[in-house]
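Model the whole thing, not chain by chain.
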Amino acid sequence: MELLVVIAIMAILAAVTMPAINQVLQSTKLSTAGRSIVDNLNLARQTALSKNLPVEVRFYKLPAFTSPSSAAPTTYRAMQSFLLNDTNAVPLTKPIFCPEPIVFSDNTSYSSLFSNSASKETAADSYSIPGYGRNYAYRSFLIKPGGATTLASDAFVTLTRENTSPAQGGNFVTIQIDSLTGRTRTFQP
Amino acid sequence: MALVIVLASLVLLAALALAFLASVNTELQSSKVYSQGANAKLLSQTAVNLAIAQISEATKGVDSSGKPLAWASQPGMIRTYDAAGIPTMAYKLYSWNQMTTAGAFDSSATNNQIPTAWSTQPAIFTDLNQPIKIPGTNGANVVYPVLDGNNLAPISGSKTYDANGDNKADIEGFSVSASAPTASGSGANPVPMPVKWLYVLENGKIAPPTSSTSNEATVAGASATNQIVGRIAFWTDDESCKVNVNTASEGSYMDMPRFNSSYDMGPLAKYQAVQNEFQRYPGHPAMTSLSTIFPSLTAETIYKVTPRVAGGGSMGGTVASTTPITITPNRLYATVDELLFSPTMSAGSRRTNDAETGSDALESAALEQAKFFITTTSRSPEVNLFNRPRVDIWPVSLYEDSSHRTVRDQLFAFCSTMRNDLQTPFRFYFQRSDATNATTDLPTGSSTTGLERNRMLLDYLKKNASQAIPGFGGDFKTKYGSDFDQIFTEIFDYIRCINLRDPVTKTDSSFVPFAGPLSGTKSGGGQVTPIVDTVTNTRGFGRFPTVSKAFFQFIGTATNSTNSSVPAGKLRVQAAFFLEMFDPSFGFVGVYPYFKIRVTGLDGFQWGGAPYGTTSPMGFPASATLNPPGTDAFNLENFVGGPMGYSILAYGKGWSGANRYPFVSQTIDLPDPANSGTAATDKFFDFSGGSAKIEILDASSGAVVQTLTLDFPAATQATNRFPTPKLAPNNVPESSQPDFRSFYNRINSSITSGSTSFAGACWIVDGDIVRSVEANPGDIRLIAARATVSSADNLFSPHANYFLSGKSMAHSLRTGQGNPYRGATFGKLVNVSYYGVSGTEYWNSGNSGSYAMQGSVWDLGNPSSSGVALGKATPFATGDIPGDWDTGFGNQRDGPYINKPDEGDTSSGSNLAYYGDLRYVRNNPGTFSPNRQIPSAVMFGSLPTGVQANRPWQTLLFRPDPAGTHPGSKNRKGDGSSLSGMPADHLLLDLFQMPVVEPYAVSEPLSTAGKVNINYQILPFDYIRRDSGIRAVLKSEKLISVQDADANVYKSASAATSKVFRQDLNVDETLKGFDQRFSANDIFRSATEICELPLVPSGATASSMSTYWNTRRLTGDNLRERPYATIYPRITTRSNTFTVHFRVQSLKKAPGGPADTWSETRDKVTGEYRGAQIVERYIDPNDSAIPDYADSTTNTPIGIFYRYRVLLAKQFTP
């Protein structure tokens, strides 16, 4: 009898907290994605410094989460770094995908890196992304061997939940890349 | 239920943990990468330390047994040589498997060469100049760490920079030969710099690799417990091979004018450099031209970016100006990159030098190219080949107050002083105090204090010169024997007579110049009593005249018809005795001669007329002293030393009283040759001859400065009697002049020619008889250098016409301006047709009727008509070596001068500097600069080396001698005989230094900035040619030569000629001489060796230089040595600053695989660090452990006091 009551109470509590957990899960995903991107940017910069070679950082535009992998690329939701030695570009890590439903914001006022003055959208080159082949586009910048970047001025990208925007009160992580030193700063509400 | 919840929470936790760990993974990776990067950075220090250790070992200066070693540096290597001139060791300054090799270094040996297939062995070789490509919007930006490889284009077979494609090299002197070991494939580095890796093991050991296959390397000593952890590669560049932008600017030629040419009168005389126009000071580092590196920049634009050199002033010799240039003390460039910016600000940001110059020659791409060719930190040591301090040649007053030393003098003293912590520091400069005393400035005692330091330094110099010279072998004591001490005393006195009247006196009346006085009567101004070294019995030249000719002049004063006391048929004859003097120190600043002359022994001279057989005394006083006029100096037609006419001693002398000219005889009545009744054989008179002792005395103290004994032979035979003179005329062109029938009138009158009047001209007219005894063979320097001249020295002889009864004139007398007196014979230094010379004697012409003065001529006087020969008293004959003599300044005569430093002359009104009216002293602060006066010790080149050995026309040799027969050449002794192993004269230069103290302290104690290393061969990359440094030095120089055919225009009384006597250099041909040395697998061991390399003028070739001077014999010794005087101070063969370019990698061996083998494919490079560090070896001159090197007991090698510091550390991160 008491057990039933306890179970009932637990069920009610669970039901009440379920939506909240969803929120928590999503914000955890957001934080994780943000940390992951920052870590990879730092790795890219550190590799450039240590190997004394330029590193290209790419942000990939891939089909939406719900679309099949052959659909046209629409959202920026992955990144990867390449070490440019004399002959070819060697990837530092596997591509880092943002967990669903976290994407980079397309709006150039939230992701200035994606404006045409900071980077150019380039079609896929010979590198194949696992799962998507050459069906992608990307924007990139270089980190020079001294740690500086080829960006003209400081740029930033914002991670948000798909279809939400920070202006509407949604959660977000903004990563700012200093163009002269290559270091990152994160901003989160 | 609970389980579900627990599972759900576990899932949640797991998800969180995964996310965390994922980031941890990346962070761990980042940290590992960071630590490997840090490892690589630490390894770079190993590379630099290895380079510093090599340099330190190589520059020790002594071998293991303490014997001195000379060292010389070049990019990539330092070589050492022992005291016999044999190479002992070669120290590589780049990473290779064998870093030191004994003996000579053969760069063509297989194990020293870079194999063409180096790029296929990446485990052994690495390219230090490998670029990093940064992709950009306009194609890849390729950045090179050492030598820029962009914009290379082939021009004449090798590649060089040609960004605008105009087929002209962008940077002169740079090329990459076609045999460069470029790797195959497109995109390969066109300027590779491969060196071998050196592997670093875990315990710190460094080992070279060996290889049997292309991708692997075996490292001895590596094992599982002592893994390979990294590898280093480096190459050291010699900073002094590059042009220093802080000291160089754009040079513009200037010299003392020496010809009657429009070029010498224009840019050199009229448009002289003004104060602070360093770009025109001969021998100053600002004469090194930056346009070699930046050819599109003009001189005026270059002056906008040079920190302490500004444009304006004479604008390269085109504008007459007296306003000093204002130098804004801008910052000196600290690094080459700083050349981008100018010191001024504009709108809150710094202006670029590009905007300042209005060109794009200094934008970043151009500076990327130029970084291999320019530097801001080049320094070279001021120690001689024995690795002991050099002696400064700028003299400084003994008294340290501001009325005896100018600010510049203090700076010179600073540059040559060590151990300022002591009460009496160690001074390596000469001090002076008294210009009127022959012994004060060189005491017999030797100590560190006061003037006794001079003795100590002189002994120090002699000690160095009597030891075998490291790098060359041989010593000067063996070479010159008895003249060894004499040469050093001459050098000491030459130094003592530099800067006689510092023109600071014009603005500061309290300053006491060395050769004063300046105010009042100025007597003795500019005059210096020659120094006498009582220890060695040798004498210098000072700035003092000696006797070159002595003569008797016989005149007819009266006959019966003019003076009834004279018996009929007789002519009353009177004689006088005169001296013509000569000061070998010919030039500015002027001199107010002030001395006394005492002649004794004239009372022994007798004469007698027909009937012959008896002579009576001529009636000269037994001893008389000729005094200067009161307290005034003797007046001169010119006031600049050199040849001095005889009138200076006589002018202004009255007929009676104390001011009377004492050397006039009594009269004698002889049969008048003009009288018809006189028999033909009676028209002569006997002259008994005799010995006249002439003493030159100091005017105030009466001390004897020099004693000369001249013998006048007897002429009492029928064949050689003197002809009787004729009655002198009593009318002269100007009716205001009195008659010539008395010596009083002759020596007091003046001649007016146009608007110029020559006071005290003295006169020798038609009818006079003159017999002289003259310096023969005419190298009066040998006379001037002796304290006592006796007849046994054979330095004087009767004139060639002395015994010829038919000749009325037997002399070669000249006025101070060079005009010959009536009947003077000519003499030639070289057997060519000089201006105004024809026949055998000069007779009348011009506006003087039958009296004296021919127009100006440019021969010397007594030397014979076929020229002078080195080392011989006889005239020049085929097979002789032409004698050494100096070309006079301006339009003045050539002669046996000692190349006096030029203290400057300025134009005044219509009187052009150096040419017009030499009676006034016009040096002023506007024309003054120490370096302009004496650029280097090469100025000693006209000091005679044959005084004791009585070898005339032989001076120090600081120019090439293609025949190798001049005694100054190597393998020759001072007496001309050949002796293998004897050093060349130019090695004496190595003992001295001339510091540069303006525009800023370019020189410091024991080092000078800005000198260019003439060893431009780059090892091991001998396919890269960088001789731009030496081109920058030679660009502003000119070769001075006078063709035999120009004998009657190079100096003349006609209008200035437009002929070119100073030609630009053909640098390509001149460099062939340098290349010859490198192809023989050797380098220059001392910068003085430049004196053996012929400078090729434009229009000639290197091979033609061996006979070039055979048709240009009119070029004086001082002119042939002049270009070397201004090149030598700007070059060196040793450097104190080096740039170590390195590339280091931290390595990680893959597990499995042999521990002592490195595989390029399997094993991993974890981090790389590339960069460069500029290191400087320096010495603290006040280090309390430093001994006095002038002390003969000091044996400590100076190398142990040198330390190393890193001036600039730069990482290659484009």
